[in-house]
Amino acid sequence: MKQDINTFTPDLSDVSPEFSSETSAFRTIFEKSPYGKIIINDHGTITAVNEHAMAMFGYSKSELLGEKLEVLLPQRYRAGHVVQRTRFADAPDARVMGQGRDLTGLRKDGIEFPLEIGLTPFETEQGLMVCAAIQDVTDRQRSERRMREVNAQLEEFTYVASHDLRSPIRGISNLIEFIREDFEEGQLDGVLKNIDRMDKRVHAVEKLIDDLLTYARAGRRSVEMEPTSLSEILSDIIAIENIPDGFDVKIDACDTQFEAARTPLTTVLRNLIANAIKHHDKDTGTITVKGHLTDSQCVIDIADDGPGIPENARERVFRLFQTLKANERGGSGLGLAVAQRLTTGHGGQLALVPTIAERGTCFRVSWPRFTRTDLRV
Amino acid sequence: MSDIEPKILIIDDDDIYAELVSRALRKAAPHIQVVAAEDGQEGIETLTGKSEQPCERPLVILLDLNMPRMNGFEFLEEIRADPTLRKNVVFVFTTSEADEDRERAYDFGVAGYIAKSRVGPQMGNMTELLKSYASTVILPS
After folding, report:
1. B96: nearest CA in chain A?
2. For residue B67, is it within any domain?
3. In a domain, B1, yes or no
4. In chain B, which residues have their Cβ closer than 8 Å to the Cβ of A323?
5. Shortest CB distance from A166 goes to which of B70, B74, B95?
C-alpha cells in the first residue's frame, strides 16, 4: 500500500513501464475522481493534483505543482492556514477539515467559492503527505441560503398578516359599529369624525401593502459589482440626501478601492443616515460616520447623538413595522428592516453597537469585501 | 373596593379601543370609568401617577401587545419586576391570535387573554366579564 501511494508522488505524470495494475488502478481513481484531489508534502507544497481540482480552481497542472497550497486560499486566510497545517502535521488523522466553519477557496480568476475538504494523511519515504479531497459546495450553500431566506420571509409575512394587516381592518369594523350605534341613537355629531378615522385606516392598509412589497423586493439581490470606495459612496449620499439645517454629518472613511455591490450598500448607508436624522429629537445634531476596511470586510459605524433606543426595544428595532414613537404611525417602520435585509442578503451584518451612554445610537454595518460564488446569482 | 369608583386602564396605541370599551360600559355599567394610555410607557406613568390622567389603582388593565415605544410584553416585564406595580390584574386585549403571543402572555401571569375579534356583539361578552369582575373579585389591598 505504501509502495503504491508513493508512486503518486512527487510526479504523477511519470509513466514508467513497471507500473503494476494495482498502481495504475489507484492512479485512475485519483485522476478521474469526481472530487478535487490535491496531495501536499510536509512543507505544504503541492505534489499532485487531479483533473477535477484543476478545473475547480482554474489552474493547469504545471501552474500548481511545486506551489504552496496557500495559493488556493484567499490572502486573508493564508497565514492562519500555515499555522493550522503545521499543527495538523503534529497529530495527523483522517478527518473532515474545519467542520462547522465556512471554508473558502480562491480561483485563479480571483473569485472565491465555498468548499468542503476531507483530509487523509499518509507516511511516505519523503515524509508525511496529506491528500485533500475537495468539493465545491456553491450550489448547496446557495440553496440553503435561499431556503433560509424564504422561510424567514414566510414567517414574517404570516406575522404581518396576523398583526399589522389585521389591526386596521379590526379598527374599521369597530368604527362601522360606532356609526351604526350613533345612527340608531340619533347621535350624528361623531359620525363624520368616525368616517375620517375609517378613511385613515384604509390608507394605512394601502401603505402597509406598498411597504411590504418594497420590503419583499429588497430581498432580491442586485449583483452588479463595481469598484468603489467608502469615501466615494458616502460623499454621494451626502450630495443626494437632504440634510436639514442644524444637522452635521461628519465623515471619516478611507478611499481604498474595493469591489462591491454598490447600489445596495449605498441604500443601506443612506437609510441609516436618514433614520438618524429623522428620529433625532432636537433641531441640531451630529451624525458621525466612520468607515474602514479589514482583511475581509468594510466596517462602517453610523453614530448619532439623538435620543437613543431604550434598552428593552433594542432587540426589536430590526423587525417589520416597529416604530419607536407612538405618534409616528405615518412612518412605515420599515427602514431598518429593509436595511438589514439588504445587508444580510449580500453576506453582511447590520447590528446595534451596545452602548452605556444615556443618549445616542450607533449602528454597525459589516459588508463583505469579497463576494463568494454562493452569493452571486 | 366598593367605596371608590372602579376604573379600567386600557393601554392601546389605537384610541378606538378606549372608545369601544367606554361605549360598551356606558350602557351596561356606567359606574366603571375608563382611563386610556397609548403605549406601555404611558401606562406605567399612569399607574405611578405621573400622567395627566392618573389611574393608580385600576380594577383591571386591558393591555394591547403590539405598540410602539414600549410594547405589551415589555410593559408586563416592567410591572412584574416592580414590587409596587406587580399585583395589578392584567387582561391582554389584542388582535393577535398567535399561539406564541398567548403562551408568552400567560408566562407573565396575565388574568386572561382576550382576542379583539371575540368580544361579542357590542362588546357584550367583554362587558359582562368586566361587570361581574368588578362586583365579585376581591383585589389585593
Report:
1. A163
2. yes
3. no
4. 68
5. B95
Tens-of-pLDDT digits for all 141 residues of chain B? Answer: 444 678 999 999 888 899 999 988 888 888 889 999 999 999 999 999 888 888 888 999 999 998 877 889 999 999 999 999 999 999 999 988 888 899 999 999 999 999 988 887 778 888 888 888 888 888 877
- Arithmetic mean of pLDDT over chain A: 82
Residues of B within 8 A of A313 (CB-CB) are 69-70, 74
CA distance B54 to chain A (A): 19
Q: Do A313 and B17 touch (CB under 8 A)?
A: no
Q: What is the CATH number of the domain that holds B112?
A: 3.40.50.2300
Mean pLDDT for A240-255 is 88
Residue B107 located in a structural domain? yes
Which residues in chain B have their CB less than 8 angstroms from residue A329's CB?
13, 68
- The answer to whether the beta carbons of residues A72 and A57 sit under 8 Å apart is yes
Contact B13 A329 (CB under 8 A): yes
Q: Give me the residue from B38, B77, B98 closest to A326, CB to CB.
A: B38
According to DSSP, the residues that pair with B63 across neighbouring strands are B11, B92
Say how many domains are in chain B: 1
Could you say which of B14, B70, B98 has the minimum Cβ distance to residue A162?
Answer: B98
* pLDDT confidence bin for A12, thresholds 50/70/90: very low
| Predicted local distance difference test score (pLDDT) of residue B107 | 94
- Chains A–B, number of C-beta pairs less than 8 Å apart: 57
Mutate to test the interface with B, among A156, A169, A174 (most CBs of B within 10 A): A174
**Domains with residue ranges and CATH for chain A:** 2-136 (3.30.450.20), 137-218 (1.10.287), 223-377 (3.30.565.10)
Q: Tell me if ipTM is over 0.90.
A: no
A 10 A CB-CB count for B28 gives 16
**Shortest alpha-carbon distance between residue B3 and chain A (Å):** 32
User: Where in the sequence is the domain holding B60, given as residue range(s)?
Assistant: 7-136
Judging contacts by C-beta atoms under 8 Å, the chain A residues touching residue B122 are 177, 181
**Residue B68 has what DSSP assignment?**
S
Q: Which residues, in sequence order, are CB contacts of A262 under 8 Å at separation 6+?
A: A224, A225, A226, A228, A233
- How close A273 gets to chain B, by Cα (Å)? 21
